[in-house]
Amino acid sequence: MVDSTTTTETPSNGSVNDVNEASAKTSSKVLHEAEPNPLVICGPSGSGKSTILKAVMSQPKFKDLLAFSVSHTTRKPRPGEVHGREYYFSDRDSMLAEIKAGKFIESAEFSGNLYGTSKDSVQKCKSQGKICVLDIDAQGVRSLKKVSNLSPVYVFVKPPSMTSLEDRLRSRKTETEESLAKRLHAAKEEIAFGEEQGAFDALIVNDGLDSAVKHLVDVIETKILKDGVPENVSDCGDAIKDSIPKGDVEEEEEEDIGGKKAKLDSASETSDSSRDSTPGAVER
Fold it and tell me: Does the active-site annotation cover 183?
């Protein structure tokens, strides 16, 4: 995942309090705004979902309207990753305690590392009147559907064929034959879930970047912005103001993202999940 949010100070344990502090700094700037439903995007590693998202978010209409929810993880930062941008990097004990306390709307474990989406990270996007984007895998989607009432729009991105997916993964030159086989097996399972009736609101076949981007734009405009964008977009820039439909926007009640406590789903112990990829990395 990618997020436009950056932090200037790196706390010692990457707790949810990091998000609280950042949210408090922005809340004083934000007047009353409607809170659009989040966008959840899912797809196997190599499907190109990150590339599609980057292309959509580069468009003037959406560049300040969409914002990524930064996930928490207990894995170590990779070169170039910044705390609070790619992930909130935490330690295992702190994150487990916060999951137990119900501070996460979904969480999972892969190859000994915890990953999760905190309630405060999502609320930070929503409170600014932005569309909160969650880039999570099939396991995270299942968990999210069980424990939250965010009413997100679920989008699944799939490659045109398993052969094209294998070609994309091989082109990265980062896979051994063994790891490639595991990724392809995991991809088949994710695609099967993505094609299940009613599992997702939209299924995008990435057989061309332009058409895939257009499809995602259509989904956002028809399923999230169908009632218009927030009236007050003082923090969203002139491009967003120009795109506001005329007329009144019906005010939504504040959604409760507390709901039930998040469940730590440790069914998968493999690092071949798309969850373990660096957010925002361009998928070829």
Answer: yes
